[in-house]
User: Fold these one by one.
Assistant:
Number 1:
Amino acid sequence: MQNTLDSSASNASTPIYKMLVLDLDDTLLRDDYTISARNKELLFAAQNRGVKVVLASGRPTPAMCQFADELKLAHYDSYMISFNGAVVTSLKNNEVLFETSLTNKEVHSLHDFSIANNVHIITYSDKGVVSETDSEYIDVELKLTGIPHHKVPSFKDEVTTTAIKCILLAHPDYLKQVEGKLKTERTDLSVARSKPFFLEVMPHGIDKAKSIDFLAKELGIEQHEVIAVGNAGNDLTMVQYAGLGIWVDNVAPELRHEADYIVSSNMNDGVAEVVERFILT
C-alpha cells in the first residue's frame, strides 16, 4: 500500500463508495473528544449522498451514542461497531445485529496474565469500568468513555460471567513487550493496541474488519465500495480490508505504510478531507 496523497485521485474514474467507516478517538474526534464543525458538515453531505457513515470504535456502545446522535446516524438508518468489533448495532431501531464475548474462563486467564506481567486490567459491567487497581491509564478510559469506575477487591469474584472485551494497560514501552508476549502465548484471542497504553483483547477472530464485512454483506455493499479511516493498531484490519484504506496523519509511525492514502490529522479535519476527495467529487 502507498502512504502518500495522490493529487490525481479525484477524476472521472474515481470509484463510487457506499460506506464510510470511521474510527472515533484520534481520527474523527479532535483531542478534546469533539467533532469539528467541518467534519460534521462534510459527513452530513456524505449521508445526503446516500453513503452509510458507520462509527467503528474500541469504545463501549454507550460511550459512542452521543457522536452517533450528533451525526444523526439513526435518521440516516446507519450503524455503530463498538467494543472493537464485538458488537454491531442498528441505530434506526437500536437493535444489536451481532454480539460476541470472551468466556469467563478467558477473562479470568487474562487477569492471571495481567498479574504475572504486572499490568492493569479492566473490563465492563452494568456497574461501570471494572478493575482491582487505580492507574493514570485507567483514568484516561474513564474520561474518554464517561463511564464510572467500579473498583473491586477481587476482579475474578466480580466478573463471574462473560465479558465483551478486556483491556490491559501499562506504560507504552512496556506494553509493547507485553503485546508481543500475549500474541505469542494466546493465539486463541484477538489482540490489538488502540492507544499506546491500551491493549485490547477480544474473542478469537473478532476485530473491526470482521464486523465491517458482516455489516457490508447485510447491506449488499461490496468490499471495494468501503472506505475505512483510522489511526491506530486496532484500525489496521479495517484499513487493510477496505477498498480504500486511509490513515489520518497522526497515525502511529510504524503503520504509515499500511494504507492507500494519508490525509490531514484528526486536529486538521482529515475526515472532511476524505469526504471531499473521495465521495463528493
Note: The longest helix spans residues 172-185.
Number 2:
Amino acid sequence: MRLAALLEPTMVSADLKGDSKNAAINELMDLVIRQYPDLDRAGILSSIAEREEIENTSFGRCFAFPHARTDLVSDMHIAMGVSKKGIKAPTPDQKPLHVICLLLTPRNIAQLYLQTLSGLAALARDERNLPRLMGADSPEEVIRAVWDTGITIRKHLTVRDIMHRDVVSANPDESLKDAANKFYRYKVSGMPVIDNDGKPIGIISERHLIQAALPNYESLIQNMALAPDVEPFDELLRHEDEIKVRDIMTMRVFTTTEDTPIVEAAAQMLFRKIRRVPVVDSYGSMVGIILRRDIVSKVIRG
C-alpha cells in the first residue's frame, strides 16, 4: 500500500499558519476534529504533549512527526501540514520545520503505526521531496507529491522500520582514549568496530573499557584482599593512548539485515544477551544499527 493512500485532502493543509510547533499541532488537530467531531480533542492533545516530553518528535531535514498511541481513537488518523515560511523549533539539525505530520493510532495497531512512521521517515530522508511539498498549493497537490515518491507501507514490521542509519562507530586502530571520548561526546554506551571496508568486525562498550582496568574482576569479587596495590584505573589512564580498540573489543559480532522481522531480531538479542546489532547489506557492509532500547521505546512504548 502506498503511503499517499493513507492521506485524505480534508486532513491536509498546504499552508500552515502557526508560528510554533504546538500551534501547528493544534492547527492539524482542527482538521482531525472537523472530520471526526466526537474525538476528545483535549485528551488527544495531552497524549501528544506527553509523547513530546519523552522525546522530541522533530526528525530533522525540516520534518516533524508528532504522534500518540491512545485509546481515544479507534482508527489511525494522519494529518499533514506544510509551512511555507518555516517554524522555528528545537530540531536535530537546527533547521526550521516545514512539514509536520500528525499521527494518531490506537494502541492495538502498533505494527501499522510503526510502518507508517517508517514511511514518513523515508519521505523526509529524500531531499528531493521537501521542495515538492513546499511547492504544492492545495491538499491534493501535497498528496500527489507524496504519491509520486512511490513510498509504500510494508505488511510486516522489520528491522528497517526502527533501525538507526547514522551510526557512531570505532576503528580498530583507535585508542582507548578515542573510544571513551566518543562514548561521552555522542552519549552512547557502545558502538560497532568497523574495518576499512565498512564491515563490522567487533563491538566495544563501556563494559569493555572498565574490564580493561579490571581484567581479573571475577577473582577480585571472590577475594577483595587480592585487590592490587596500584589503583587499576590510574594504571589504565597512563596507557590510554597506547591501548587500541582492537585490544579490548569483543569479536563476537551478530549482524542482521534490514528485512529481518523485528520479532526475530528481538529474540536473537535476548538469546545472545546483547544490546546492539549492526545491520548489514548483502555485501556485509554496515548500513545501520538496531538497539535493544529501540524495541522498548518504539515498539512497546511507541
Note: The first helix runs from residue 21 to 35.
